[in-house]
């Protein structure tokens, strides 16, 4: 990850990742992980790595440590993070939604769970909502809407990035797609964290809050206190 803009490092059009099975022989075991990519465009940048472990293993590890930086939040704190105005960088949001999806998706689901890099992050209400989503009566209403756009209730993982003309369209077009380009109904069907979204006739602040609460309910099941 390129630390300064907070974005994943890409090489040849693909996100740079590395997967290595790791079963340590001892509590302080180590594992070498190799990343291969062209670094010519990263001069002067600071690159950092993140490890993704099994959620159950992480919970056990965190529970065994007393350091405040690894303290598991309470259910109330988790719900507050989902339903408040907490914002995350795109990679964090995609990770949170993917982990919830991987744990909450029914075992008999007809939709196969892809790998982490098989999903794109999408804003359900677009950042440039002024163009196709109508006007609000007050400036305060506009500020509140702008603030909620980057919260978890308005963010989703889908199987492929939407075409720009679909992404910035009105809600009905964003769901259905147009001119052969798929919308959310084609790129998000079967995704558990999208339950209730595709059936919504409109998408607004109320719907974002409702979905945030549903996601928070899922999160406290995945990461019980």
Structure description:
This protein has helices at 55-63, 75-83, 90-104, 139-148, 164-167, 171-176, 184-187, 205-222, and strands at residues 10-11, 14-15, 120-123, 155-158, 177-178, 181-182. With 225 residues, the chain is mainly alpha-helical. The protein folds into two domains: 1-51, no CATH class; 55-222, no CATH class. The chain has a two-stranded antiparallel sheet with strand order 1-2. Strands 3-4 form a two-stranded antiparallel sheet. Strand 5 and strand 6 form a beta hairpin. The radius of gyration is 19 Å and the shape is globular.
Largest sheet: 2 strands, antiparallel
Following the backbone from N to C, one meets helices and strands in this order, namely EEHHHEHEHHEEHH
Strand tally: 6
User: How far is it from the N-terminal to the C-terminal residue, by CA?
Assistant: 30 Å
Strand order of the largest sheet: 1-2
Q: Helicity level, as a percent range?
A: 25-40%
Strand content: 5-15%
Question: Tally the helices: what do you get?
Answer: 8
Q: What's the overall geometry?
A: globular
Could you tell me the radius of gyration in angstroms?
19 Å
Structural class: mainly alpha
Average pLDDT, to the nearest integer? 82
**Number of folding domains?**
2
User: Low-confidence parts lasting 5 or more residues at pLDDT below 50?
Assistant: none
Task: Detail the topology: elements first, then pairings.
Elements: E1 10-11, E2 14-15, H1 55-63, H2 75-83, H3 90-104, E3 120-123, H4 139-148, E4 155-158, H5 164-167, H6 171-176, E5 177-178, E6 181-182, H7 184-187, H8 205-222
Antiparallel strand pairs: 1-2, 3-4, 5-6
Helix pairs in contact: 2-8, 3-8
